[in-house]
Amino acid sequence: MKVTPTKIPEVLVIEPQIFGDDRGFFFESFNQKKFEEAVGRSVQFVQDNHSKSSRGVLRGLHYQIKQPQGKLVRVIVGEVFDVAVDLRKKSPTFGQWVGEYISAENKKQLWIPEGFAHGFVVTSEYAEFLYKTSEYWNSKYERAIAWNDPALGISWPMKKGLRLSEKDLAAESFDSAEIFD
Q1: Options 101, 131, 136, 141, the catalytic residue
Q2: Is 62 annotated as catalytic?
Q3: Is 63 one of the catalytic residues?
């Protein structure tokens, strides 16, 4: 497993070692011990989620103000541009974002620790997106920041033809959002 920090060092790109031949391929998609060595701490995952979306669907930027979720995300069909925004007020990278293309083809995973907003846009015909969370989803604490907030300046690869949920269309601006201390 190859682990590469992004420009926000706590957000990690994880690439598995792939063993392939004319029959196909094999790789270890998750190993608790190796993962904890990579992130430098114990992480217990409590929930796995699976979504399917078509081209132009943008989900996010989501986070939970209490019971924050760390997320280990990957794509098993298609491709997405995945984004993490640092919402930790005391962090030197507060308000900064990182984005990575993750796909079934490149088999990359992204570790987004607690304290970050998360979102993605589907860049392929459709994508199936899997993610593990370190805390249970709780609608009472869920929040969303506008995907296109100029204060964040996220360089999404698509800006036209996007499809968002009503919740995401009504998301707050970064400046008025409830964030972590």
Answers
A1: 131
A2: yes
A3: no
- Domains contained in the chain, CATH given: 2-169 (2.60.120.10)
Cα Rg of the chain, angstroms: 16
CB 36 within 8 A of CB 43: yes
**pLDDT (tens digit per residue) in 113-165:** 999 999 999 999 999 999 999 999 999 999 999 999 999 999 999 988 999 99
**Overall size of the chain counted in residues:** 181
Whether the model clears a pTM of 0.85, i.e. scores above it, the answer is: yes
Distance CA 36, CA 38 (A): 5
pLDDT in tens, 83-99: 999 999 999 999 999 99
| Closest to 53 (Cα-Cα) out of 160, 128, 162, 118 | 128
Q: Cα dist. 77→61, 122, 177 in Å?
A: 21, 11, 33
